[in-house]
Amino acid sequence: MRKLSLFTGCLIPNRYPGIEKATMLVLERIGIKCSELKEAACCPAPGIYRSFDNITWLTLASRNLVLAEEKGTDILTICNGCFSSLMDANNILKTDAGLRNEVNAHLQKIGKEYRGTIEVRHIIEFLHTDIGVNKLGDAIEKPLEIRAAVHYGCHLLKPTRERKLGSAQFPVFFDELVETTGAKSVPYEGKTSCCGAGGGVRSAMLETSFKMTEYKLDRIQKAGVDCIIDACPFCHLQYDAGQIELEKSGKDYDIPVLHFTQLLGLALGFTPDELGLHLNEIVNLKFEEKIAQIQKWY
After folding, report:
1. 146 and 289, same domain (yes or no)
2. FRET label pair with 15: which of 22, 102, 217, 245, CA 20 to 30 Å apart?
3. How far, in Å, CA of 181 to CA of 146, rounded?
4. Mean pLDDT of successive 10-residue segments in the chain (298 residues)?
5. What is the CATH number of the domain that holds 250?
6. Distance between CA atoms of 109 and 284, rounded to whole angstroms?
7. Cα 11 to Cα 3: distance, rounded to the nearest angstrom
8. What is the distance between the alpha carbons of residues 9 and 96, in angstroms, rounded to a whole number?
């Protein structure tokens, strides 16, 4: 197994540091060594830079890739957007010599060169492919008897020709990981639809963005779940802070939102506070009491 460097991106350190802490805790617990990717910058966000200037996007992304190349590690992402930006840039630069030369001309100004020697991984894809559900299941200490709504997010699944993770319409790999924790992945209408945040929608069309979020939350609530499980801090923000915004229009969901590493951490025996759940906008005490009871039973 190749060495890994953790790419946290922008949103996690600034808004949800609990996700970073949870990730490091669970990786250490299951025996995966992952170092910090020092001096990393924004991925950059695929829905913004890539949409306006391809070379700027590729150059900024390639600088992050080069940092990992210099360490001799693959990049491990815990954000769908970072995964998309870095993986797509890596694939393009590996196969297009013209763009690679153009990007390297910019990188040479800061004494760096992209060589295309590393891979970009998403933690969900990595855990499912390299660790496997059986081995991960063997590590579980506190099986979680809860009902979860799994949200894949757009960039984890598409474009399918690049992701190669199975069907984008009926994916199962994330659900399988969630169920290794003892949780039940509950089906719901619109499961693979967008959270409403990506592609600049949240920034440019906030009302439309929240309509998309409301669509999802209505169906998740109807499914009768204990929590939402995501794999992306931007989706996490949209569901977590979005519930607070939707309260202004009379919507009351109160559904806790967890990144998968936080769910896995609970099943490994870490407490909600150790995993940063208290840093969310939605702090559901009933959910945390249920987790406390489950952890005490075993």
Report:
1. yes
2. 217
3. 10
4. 93 95 97 95 82 90 98 97 96 98 98 98 96 96 96 88 77 97 97 83 70 94 97 95 91 96 97 95 91 85
5. 3.40.50.11810
6. 50
7. 24
8. 26
